[in-house]
Specification:
Elements: E1 2-7, H1 14-24, E2 28-32, H2 33-43, H3 46-57, H4 63-75, E3 82-86, H5 92-100, E4 105-112, H6 115-123, E5 125-127, E6 134-136, H7 163-177, H8 179-185, E7 190-194, H9 199-209
Helix pairs in contact: 1-9, 2-3, 4-5, 6-7
Bound molecules: adenosine-5'-diphosphate.
Length: 210
């Protein structure tokens, strides 16, 4: 097992890229910290109960809480698998926790998208609450409006995708997560793609860079 970390702002398309690639490559596994957390919230586990308020406010959940979830996934992932780690680490403390697991990092790919575009992307984002597939009303619409192509469930707007919370999430990204660019650059692991070329080309560029 090894891993590729996806770095990028909320709404930069990390989840769409990782989801697409994992669907078509049997040895790639998409691990989304946000999906793990939303799953825990939906189930009402102790971690989910603790995380819920932070997530609704667009703040980071406590480092130890999400780090434990990721460690559990690492422990259960064996064999010839590359984990596409989407949403973790999100600050330097988490990056150090990840390093302490000893799991090998193959590369870190920054999906680069300017903030102005992010706001619009998140405004149009629709999510499947059942299978977690992501859509956008114009850039990546489902075949039938409001319905998931993959599982037929009714699409929703995530609670934290409202414009005010998005602004807060971008502030958190610049303050907490952006320092990871220099952190991984110093280790010679960083690569960068232009995340503004549409879902298909973004996924191709990512695969070539990782
Ligand atoms: P996005 O990438 O669009 O912000 P995510 O699904 O990755 O969405 O994250 C949603 C929320 O889950 C975050 O705003 C945060 O509250 C929480 N979260 C996800 N990953 C982490 C993490 N590594 N550390 C702390 N909080 C996290």
């Amino acid at each position: 097992m090894n891993m590729v970390i996806l770095l990028g702002a909320p709404g930069s398309g990390k989840g769409t890229i990782a989801g697409r690639l994992a669907e078509t490559n049997a040895n790639l596994k998409h691990v989304s910290s946000g999906d793990l957390l939303r799953g825990a919230v939906a189930k009402g586990t102790p971690a989910g109960v603790e995380a819920k308020g932070f997530m609704e406010r667009g703040q980071l959940v406590p480092d130890g809480l999400i780090a434990q979830m990721i460690k559990d996934v690492i422990a259960e992932t064996q064999g010839d698998v590359t984990m596409l780690l989407d949403g973790f680490p999100r600050n330097v403390a988490q990056a150090e926790m990840l390093e302490a697991t000893g799991a090998p990092i193959r590369s870190v790919v920054l999906v680069d998208v300017p903030d102005e575009i992010i706001q619009d992307r998140i405004a149009g984002r629709r999510t499947c609450p059942k299978c977690k597939a992501g859509y956008h009303v114009t850039a990546l619409p489902p075949k039938v409006a409001g319905v998931c192509d993959k599982c037929g469930a009714e699409l929703v707007v995530r609670k934290d995708d409202n414009p005010d919370t998005v602004k807060d999430r971008l502030v958190v990204y610049h303050r907490e997560t952006e320092p990871l660019i220099a952190f991984y650059e110093a280790k010679g692991l960083l690569r960068k793609i232009d995340g503004n070329k549409g879902p298909v080309k973004n996924a191709e560029a990512f695969l070539a860079a990782m």
